[in-house]
Amino acid sequence: RISKQCEESLRKLGTDYIDLYQIHMPAAGIREEEILEAQAGLVSSGKVRWIGECNYASWRHAEANGIAEAHGWPQMVSAQNHYSLLHRQVEIETLPFCRERNVGFLPYHPLAGGFLADKYVKGEAAPEGTRGAAGSPIVTNSRTPQNEDMQDALKTWARERGHTLAEPAF
């Protein structure tokens, strides 16, 4: 399945190789060796340069890299997780793991779907054309009273320093 998905991505992208190919939420019951062997085949064939993961716990990433090393396969060089001013759990374990192991970190939802980008005003409906107006779960879940208070305080702090809300959020 991994090879098939890679071939489809190559076709859609109109390219011969992918710089970073990440595994996202593998199905339960799939052994890490199966995933890594398939990814190693893509690297050895030149279709993929580096491999990584999305939403792995740090222990799982370390375990996968240990398995890869034992087999002589490429190790995962990146971790991608949800990270924003509202969602900072990765600071506890994932970011220290990445620093310690020289693993690149890629955040997703750093602007909470736009909630941290000056588009939303406390107590007002989501503006037309935004993810919030379309019912995006990331925005809906971010628009709590506590987060709207935090967003207001961050907007004030940023504007007093000549910045937009998105700048400190990034």
Q: What is the topology?
A:
Blueprint lengths: L1 H12 L4 E7 L7 H13 L3 E7 L3 H14 L4 E7 L11 H8 L2 E5 L28 H6 L2 H16 L5 H4 L1
Parallel strand pairs: 1-2, 2-3, 3-4
| Biggest sheet: strand arrangement | 1-2-3-4
Helix content: 40-55%
- CA-based gyration radius: 19 Å
Beta-strand percent range: 15-25%
Helix-strand topology string: HEHEHEHEHHH
Describe this structure in words.
Helix content is 43%, strand content 15%. The two termini are 35 Å apart. The longest helix is centred in the last third of the chain and has 16 residues, at 145-160. 25% of the residues are buried. It is of the alpha/beta class. β2, α3 and β3 (76-82) form a beta-alpha-beta unit. It contains seven helices and four strands, in the order αβαβαβαβααα. It has a four-stranded parallel sheet with strand order 1-2-3-4, covered by helices on one side. It has helices at residues 2-13, 32-44, 58-71, 94-101, 137-142, 145-160, 166-169; strands spanning 18-24, 48-54, 76-82, 104-108.
